[in-house]
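for the writeup, i need someone to sanity check this before i put it in the appendix. the sequnce is what the collaborator sent (i think, or maybe the updated version? ugh). structure was predicted straight from it, no edits. if anything looks off just tell me and ill rerun, i have time this weekend
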Amino acid sequence: MILPQLSVLADFGSGQKVALSFDDGWKNQYDEALPILRECGFKASFGVITDNIGLDRGTFWSRMNVNELKELQGYGMDIACHTKTHSRMLNLTQDRLLDEIIASKNLLTRLGFDVKTFVYPYGEWNSTVIGYVKEAGYVCARALKPEAYRLESPHPNERYRIGSYPITNQSLVEFEKILSQSTENEVVVLTYHFISDEGPRETSTPVLNFYEQMRYLRENDFEVVLLPELFMSNEEPSWEISHFIMVLAIGGLAAIFMMILLYFSRVKM
C-alpha cells in the first residue's frame, strides 16, 4: 500500500521572513555574492540552466561550472533547476516540457545535486507547466510576480507559483519598502541576476548595494530561509509507516486464517 504524499509547512519562527534567489548561474554570483552570503550566514537558491553550466569562461558572461556549484551546495545553498535552455514555457510541446523540466532535473541529480526548487524562465507558468513540475518531484517553484508568499495559503498549487521581487539598483529606501511586505506568515523572495558594477542596468545589482542589503537583513534580524525548507515533503512513506502497515496486513491475514481454521474445526465437530 502506498500512502499519498504528505505535505505540511515547516515550523519556522515568528520573525519577518525573506528568501534569496539567484538566476541563470552567472559566475559573478559565485565571485561576489557567495562571500557576502557566507559572511552574513545566509543561504540562498541558485537557479541553474543546465545547457549553460561552465559556459563562456573567461568572459563577463561566464557561468558557474560543476565544481563551483558543488561548492555552493557544500555551503548549504539550494541548487535549483532553471530549465535546460531557458526557453519560454507556455508554448512548448510535451516533449520539450519533459526535456526542460524533468530531464534537466535528472541531469543535475546525476551530477550530484539535490534539486528541490524549480525556477520559471521569465516567470511564466500555467497549469500544464505546473503539472510537469509536480510530476518531476520538485518541492516548490518560483516565479517573478512581485508579491509575498503566504505560508498558510489553502491552495495546494500555491507553492508551485511563488512570487518574487526582482532586485537591481533599488535604493536602500526602496529595498526597505519591499521588505515591509514580509511578516511571520508571509515570505518576501528577492531575486537577483548579475551581482556586478558592470552588468546590464536592468538585471544587475551593484556589489556595494548587495552588501548593504545583506547587512540590512542581518542587522534588522530578518529570518533568511531557503524556499524548499518552508515545506516538509515526504514523497515516499517512511520505513516506520510502511512497516506499521505491513504488520497490520500480516496480522489481518493471520486473523482471517485463524477464523477459517476455527470454522472448519466446528464443522467437523
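The two ends are 39 Å apart (CA to CA). Confidence is low (pLDDT under 50) at residues 1-10, 233-250.
thx in advance!!
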